[in-house]
C-alpha cells in the first residue's frame, strides 16, 4: 500500500481536520530505534520522500513505532490512513 506521511489527516478536539507532516519525525524515530537494515532503509525513504510503498509487514511495524512514539491523535490518524488503503 502507498501512504504519504506528509499528509496525515488529524482531527482536533472539536472534530476539525488538519493535515500534518510526520514524515521526518517518523523517519527519524525508526532510524534511531531499529536494528533491522530493511527498516533503516525504510526510515530513510520515509524521511526523504514522505510517500512510500509499504508491505503488510511494514504496515504493522509502522503501527508499532507510532503507538510507542507518537501522541494518541497521531496514532489514530496514522492507523486510519494505514487501514484506508
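^ Assign residues to that structure.
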Amino acid at each position: 500500500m502507498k501512504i504519504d506521511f506528509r499528509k496525515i489527516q488529524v482531527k482536533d478536539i472539536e472534530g476539525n481536520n488538519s493535515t500534518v507532516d510526520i514524515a521526518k519525525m517518523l523517519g527519524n524515530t525508526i532510524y534511531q530505534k531499529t536494528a533491522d537494515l530493511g527498516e533503516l532503509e525504510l526510515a530513510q525513504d520515509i524521511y526523504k520522500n514522505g510517500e512510500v510503498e509499504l508491505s503488510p509487514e511494514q504496515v504493522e511495524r509502522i503501527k508499532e513505532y507510532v503507538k510507542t512514539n507518537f501522541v494518541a491523535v497521531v496514532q489514530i490518524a496514522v492507523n486510519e490512513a494505514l487501514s484506508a488503503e
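The chain has one domain: 2-84.
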